[in-house]
Structure formats: structure tokens, C-alpha cells
Design a protein that fits this description.
mainly alpha, 2 domains, two-stranded antiparallel sheet, disordered C terminus
Length: about 475
């Protein structure tokens, strides 16, 4: 099956496969943890049981998604040693501590409060339970912060020196952690996670509204999701634009591939909307483009010159076709999300948000769109970084372990089989949970203490203090 691939290509495919499975679960759990905190906060504030019912409904789904995210993430760590040991040796002094900080801060915080959030409402009281939920949400954000810091350093390395044996060694930890692309990429990723969760919640709400089941609970979750889409989608587009300008400054070759600019444009570059990249002839076939708009977007000047891939050696170019199309998929979904948000505002203004079944059908179709956008964004980022693992300093070809292709192929096939079975079953279970009605919540502490040692017998009629009343 993989007999024509060398070890490097197979190792890259294996890491791409595992991270593609992994990233969809943190992207969902980051947003869902914050959503759970908001639901519980609204319940404590308004004392409306519908928020508690929705909390219990989404809590179970979060637990399954969180567990699959943890398991799929562990596998990637092992690949640093099995397939990318040279990279681990050279970059380990920088990325090792950062990943260790993620465990010491975020993972320990999540692990410490997750059990309380999932099982402890009847034991710790409403205030402490809400605190535990908030800590889990904060833990997911801290985890994203450290992981994005690691990945951003690989994109825009700073604050390091290279020692006599070729290792990257830290010189300034502030510059390492807060490297040039980190703030933009963290903002873009966290907002993407929130939008991903919003459209999943909106799709579930739309599903139940279309079926006519649990109309109030479905209406509340759908309304909250549409507020998120309407408010956050425009912010994400602005954040993506800022991220693109930062990428142009620090990784211009990636932007050339994203834009499909094989040739330099000294008098203003066009914005290529669609086309077919022809890497052999170094052009975009059947291009549909708007003259000079790319220069306006990237340089804020219609006539600003933009370099093309003709200024880059062929062996330093990323795979243009993959980057070109993944970028367009991400952008198209972003504007589709904006359209849904605007449609929901119009329906809300007309008073038909919960009655307009066309909006509900669109929201249902858009349910998985966030996952597709996140995957497309990561493909753009990671493939666009090639041929480097540490941009501009360490080639991917020089990062791989000294292993044979058949060994990587065997483990890749095993991953494909196991992942589709295990995570396919987990995803199917999550979908089944989403299709069910939100259950009634367990008794709250506000209703009285739980008697764990048994049920206290009720007083017998006509008896007071053990004596007959006459």
C-alpha cells in the first residue's frame, strides 16, 4: 500500500493523520468547557432550571470528547521519540519545558477539578461546583496557550541560540514563549474553538427544534449559539486578517502559496479567488481573480509590489496546491459562518428565530463546519511551513529518526485501523447523546441534603415522638 513512499513521507502522513484526529477534540472541548461554565453561571444567577438541564446534557458529551482528546494526544507525544527523534534532540531544550509546563499547569488543573465538575454537585455545593467548572474551562485555555506557544515557536522561532552540537538552546524564555506569531495564532485558534462549539450546539438545538422536541431547552441552546455566531464570526475574520499580515511579515513564502502567487507582481498583485495550481508550469490555471486586491488586503495599497514563488528556490517551496486549497476552504467556511450569524440576526429581529425552519436547516448543515475549518487551518499552517520543522533553521528531512519505511508503514496502518474503530465508536456515541432529549437534572443541594446512609422513615400517622395521640 505504501511501497512507493520513503520513511520521511510516511512519518509526515502518520503525524498528520494522528493530529487531524486529535485536534478536533480539543477544538470542541475548549469551547464546550467555557459553554458549560456559562450555563452553570446563568443557572446560579437566574435560578432557571433550563440552564441546569442543558449543563447536565452537555456535561456528558464534554466528558467523552475530553477523554478522546487526551488519549489521541498521548499518541502524538510518542511519535516525537519514534519517528522524529532528531527533531526531539535538537529542539528538545526549548519545546520540552514548554510541553512540561502544559502538563504541570493545565493538565493538573483540569484533572484536579474534572471529577468535581462531573460528579460532585451533590457533594460540594453550588458555589464550589461552579468554581470547579470554571477551573476546567480555564485549564483548557491554559493548555491551548502552551501548545500554541510550542507550535508558534516552530513557525517563528525566537529567543534561542544553537550550541556546538546543533541543539536549539533557550536564551530568552519571554521571547520563546511570546514569539512573534504566538498572540495572533492563539487568538485565532481559541476563537475557532468557540465557533466550532457554537455551531455544534446550534446544530443540536436546530435538530430538536425541527423535530419539535424539548422546544424550550432547544430554543435556549440555539439562541445562545446564534448569538455566538453573530458576534464572534466577524471578530474571527478580523483576527484572521491580522494573523495573515503577521504571516506575511515572518513567513512570506507561506503567504505566496496561500495566495497562489507563482510570479512576482511589482505593480500590485491580484486576489485569486479560485483556480487550479499547476506546479509543473508554475501558474494557476483557469484563475478567477480580482486585479490588485491582494496587494490592498496584504499591504493596504493597490499598487504595492508582492513577491512570488519565482523568488524562492524550488526546494524551499511548500506544496502549493494543498496550501492553496486548504486556505480557501477555511476562508469560505468563515464567511459562511458570518452569513449564518447575519441570517440569525435578521430572524431574531423579525421574531422568528425559533420558528424559521430554513435557518434551522442551515444551522444543522453547518454543524460540522467548525471542525472542517480547524482542520483546513492547521493544514494551511503546517504544510505551509514545509520544508522546515523549525522555520528557516531545521529541515524536515533532517528531523526524522533513522528508521526504515516498512516500520513506519506498519504503524501507520495500525493507527488507521485502531483510530477509525475507537474514535469512530466514540464519535458515534457522542452523536447518539446529542440526538437524545436533555435529561432532567439530578437533585440540587438547594433541594436539601442527600442522606447517603439511607432513607429516614416518615412519621407514622397519628404518632408524635413515638406515642399515640388521642
Amino acid at each position: 500500500m505504501f511501497e512507493n513512499f520513503d520513511a520521511q513521507i510516511l512519518a509526515r502522513i502518520q503525524f498528520a493523520f494522528t493530529i487531524s484526529f486529535h485536534i478536533i477534540f480539543p477544538a470542541f472541548s475548549i469551547g464546550l468547557a467555557s459553554y458549560l461554565a456559562v450555563l452553570e453561571g446563568l443557572y446560579l444567577w437566574k435560578k432557571d432550571k433550563v440552564y441546569l438541564e442543558l449543563f447536565d446534557f452537555w456535561k456528558t458529551i464534554f466528558a467523552v470528547a475530553f477523554g478522546m482528546g487526551v488519549v489521541s494526544g498521548i499518541v502524538m507525544s510518542y511519535q516525537f521519540g519514534t519517528n522524529w527523534s532528531v527533531f526531539s534532540d535538537k529542539a528538545g531544550p526549548v519545546i520540552g519545558p514548554l510541553m512540561g509546563y502544559e502538563v504541570l499547569t493545565a493538565f493538573f488543573l483540569e484533572a484536579g477539578f474534572l471529577g468535581v465538575m462531573l460528579f460532585g454537585r451533590q457533594k460540594v455545593g453550588p458555589g464550589l461546583h461552579f468554581f470547579a467548572t470554571a477551573m476546567v474551562a480555564i485549564g483548557t485555555l491554559i493548555s491551548a496557550t502552551w501548545i500554541l506557544s510550542v507550535n508558534s515557536w516552530m513557525q517563528t522561532p525566537d529567543g534561542f541560540a544553537i550550541n556546538e552540537v546543533g541543539q536549539f538552546v533557550p536564551v530568552d524564555w519571554w521571547k520563546i514563549v511570546f514569539n512573534p506569531s504566538f498572540p495572533y495564532r492563539l487568538t485565532h485558534m481559541v476563537i475557532a474553538a468557540y465557533l466550532t462549539t457554537a455551531f455544534v450546539v446550534g446544530a443540536v438545538g436546530a435538530w430538536h427544534l425541527l423535530r419539535g422536541t424539548a422546544p424550550r431547552r432547544a430554543g435556549v441552546m440555539f439562541s445562545m449559539a446564534m448569538w455566538m455566531a453573530a458576534i464572534v464570526a466577524p471578530i474571527q475574520i478580523a483576527a484572521g486578517d491580522a494573523h495573515g499580515l503577521n504571516t506575511l511579515e515572518h513567513q512570506p513564502v507561506k503567504v505566496m502559496a496561500m495566495e497562489g502567487h507563482f510570479d512576482s507582481h511589482p505593480g500590485g498583485a491580484p486576489l485569486i479567488l479560485f483556480g487550479i495550481p499547476n506546479t509543473e508550469e508554475k501558474r494557476i490555471d483557469y484563475a478567477i481573480q480580482i486585479p490588485k486586491l491582494s496587494s490592498l488586503i496584504l499591504k493596504h495599497d493597490l499598487n504595492a509590489p508582492l513577491d512570488g514563488l519565482d523568488t524562492v528556490p524550488d526546494d524551499k517551496e511548500p506544496p502549493v496546491a494543498i496550501v492553496f486549497w486548504s486556505f480557501r476552504v477555511m476562508v469560505a467556511i468563515g464567511f459562511a459562518m458570518l452569513g449564518v450569524g447575519l441570517f440569525s440576526l435578521w430572524c431574531r429581529w423579525k421574531g422568528t428565530l425559533l420558528q424559521n425552519h430554513w435557518l434551522h436547516r442551515v444551522a444543522l448543515v453547518m454543524g460540522p463546519s467548525g471542525f472542517v475549518a480547524v482542520l483546513a487551518g492547521w493544514i494551511t499552517t503546517e504544510v505551509g511551513r514545509q520544508p522546515y520543522t523549525v522555520y528557516g533553521h531545521l529541515l524536515t528531512a533532517d528531523s526524522i529518526s533513522p528508521i526504515a519505511a516498512p516500520a513506519v508503514a506498519a504503524s501507520l496502518i495500525a493507527f488507521i485501523v485502531v483510530y477509525f474503530v475507537v474514535f469512530g465508536a466514540g464519535t458515534f456515541y457522542i452523536l447518539r447523546l446529542m440526538a437524545r432529549l436533555p435529561r432532567d437534572p439530578m437533585p440540587d443541594l438547594d433541594d436539601g441534603p442527600i442522606r447517603s446512609s439511607g432513607i429516614t422513615p416518615a412519621a407514622q400517622p397519628g404518632h408524635h415522638g413515638g406515642k399515640h395521640a388521642h
